[in-house]
Amino acid sequence: MMTIISLLLLASLLPHLTFTARANVGIVNGREAKPHSRPYMVSVQFKEHHICGGFLVSDRFVMTAAHCRNKHVNLMVVVGAHDLSNSEILDHISVRNYIPHPDYIICNLQNDIMLLMLYKKVRLNNNVGLISLPKNNKDVSVDTLCSVAGWGRLWTTGSPSDRLMEANVTTLNHEECQRKWELSYSALQMICAYGSGGSCKGDSGGPLVCGDTAVGVAVIHQSYLKCILRFQHIFNG
């Protein structure tokens, strides 16, 4: 019964995510987020090491990128965190079920979205909260100011950040995205954004937030060099 409910939830949530992000990526050239200003942010971990971001869409489900589990069998999540170095006070929750998009293709990362069903419900409070999803399938307008956040690398060859970082990005039009990303880009599923800061390794699975809504999932799988050469990211959904 749980699996059926999970699949129904996935089916109901996915159409509302206008885009997800094409990126295995910390926040480069960003700033430290105000502690607990993004209570929906989740650290997805393997053996208590951060590997991806995620975000709470209900008190039992985390949305992240499907590729985050490719090499990691048993994942855990940490909710309500700002500084991951305070491991003794972090709430680690095991994942009960992994529900990738039914059309996820690992070789080209189309539909790179996954729901994690947690073993227990999280307790919502000032530090742990949900983020809303789009209420329709309308595209995000060009030149919309959005943001990304995560605990990933602060620079291309650097270490992950212990503290949650964030950066502003602005959406581009499909033609520009297609020209820059070529076959990696699908206008039906994706959007790309640019800024002076952005995602790098370790930020996959985190949300692209426009206003107070998560409109995409970051899943960038480009060379780390692009974290420095151009802060442009694809969001696929």
UniProtKB/TrEMBL annotation:
It comes from the Eukaryota. Its main location: secreted. The keyword Protease applies. GO terms for biological process: proteolysis. SUPFAM superfamilies: Trypsin-like serine proteases. It holds the Pfam family Trypsin. One of its GO terms (molecular function) is serine-type endopeptidase activity. Keywords: Disulfide bond, Hydrolase, Protease, Serine protease, Signal, Zymogen. It is found in: Secreted, Extracellular space. GO terms for cellular component: extracellular region. Residues 1-20 form the signal peptide. The keyword Plastid does not apply. It catalyses: Preferential cleavage: Arg-|-Xaa, Lys-|-Xaa. Residues 27-227 form the Peptidase S1 domain. Its EC number is 3.4.21.4. This is trypsin.
